[in-house]
TrEMBL record:
PROSITE patterns: PROKAR_LIPOPROTEIN. Residues 162-290 form the 2,6-dihydroxypyridine 3-monooxygenase substrate binding domain. The lineage of its organism: Bacteria, Pseudomonadati, Pseudomonadota, Betaproteobacteria, Burkholderiales. This is Salicylate hydroxylase. It holds the Pfam family FAD_binding-like. NCBIfam families: PRK07236.1 (NF005566). Gene3D superfamilies: FAD/NAD(P)-binding domain.
Amino acid sequence: MKILIAGGSIAGLSSALTLSCVGHDVHVYERSEVPLRGRGGGVVVLRHMLRFLEQHGHYTQQMISVPTNVRRRVDIHGATVNEEREKLPFSSWDTVYRSLCAMLPRAQISYGCEVTGFTEHAAGIDVHFDSGKSLTADMLVAADGGGSRTRATLFPEHASRFAGYIAWRGIVDEAAFSPLEVETLVDNLTIFRETGHMFMAFLIPGLDGSLEPGRRRFNWLWYRNEPNMADLHRHLTDNLGRPHHSSISAGLLSGESFVELCELANTFLPPVLAQLIQKTPEPFFQSIYDALSPTFAVGRVALVGDAACTVRPHTGSGTSKAADDAVSLAEAFSSDFDPCVVSTLEQWAARRRDEVDRLLKKGPELAAFFGLGNGNS
Ligand SMILES: Cc1cc2nc3c(=O)[nH]c(=O)nc-3n(C[C@H](O)[C@H](O)[C@H](O)COP(=O)(O)OP(=O)(O)OC[C@H]3O[C@@H](n4cnc5c(N)ncnc54)[C@H](O)[C@@H]3O)c2cc1C
């Protein structure tokens, strides 16, 4: 089949790789002019994806991870409240993204190409671009993210919904601290929580993928209830005064928000955790939204990654869900698939919706348990 993909981030690149592995002619169209810059964060290791790629002869050593050995909860003084042994391997968004880019031939990605719409007909689907050109394919994979234009076109009444809390986030080099300052953090997933907020920190690989002590980075996230919409919009206005829908990327946070973040950290966090925030050069901000497409396929269009549904970030699975979507889509269209694209997609969509259901429920359940979200401010 000829398959076009709208969006060249994790879901788009993963789908391009897996669908190419099973023999399809795939091309990715990404609206950004240049390869993406990492959203930073820690990412759980993409087990299904790695297994699938290895089965198809791809070397995946680059998706390396830093294991944490203990889940450790601390009090406001930084003293241990409880510890559980738990090995959690964390990779990073940029490590995974770079690794996917390296595996996909460069000729299969076009940057600076925005998909503006599509028209279906009996023989296929015409995909339209901002340049004015159109291309015909057998299938369109919408990997255009949480604010998916494709989802909005198919389901205009299904807008995303603010979940009542936000996340301050950041990445800071381990080398910014003396070993003594961070000795209680390096081997652990460290958690601090009180009603209405929760902080987590753990190590991820260095920007060059390094796992060597001193060359890794701390990833931290601080979830806080935000009942005040005016404050929310203020933090969603960047350092050039531009409003954003749901997140402010690293480097764009306003000076006012940064100062407020540091003050909040000094007031509400143990010093050992507040120091991570104070030394983070470019913290970023995310308001937590839920988006769910009523079905993951319509006609010849498949929705994957955040375009299909967003999962709450504290499930740690946005990226792995996107990769699993890609694997399952390729499995549905491997060697002996039903040549009727529409009915194969319909069956895939129903199956995939069932598979992600547990994850979709787990996010709000965890949030309620942590006292986060609507009704918990
Ligand atoms: C601020 C932030 C931090 C996050 N941190 C983490 C984390 O730490 N760990 C984790 O597991 N997950 C994290 N996630 C979620 C994770 O990034 C996504 O769940 C995962 O990468 C899947 O994303 P995606 O590829 O579906 O969408 P996105 O990464 O949003 O990518 C969509 C892509 O489509 C492109 N695009 C959009 N519209 C069009 C169009 N019309 N035509 C062409 N291209 C288009 C965009 O430019 C973009 O590159 C984070 C998300 C955000 C917003």
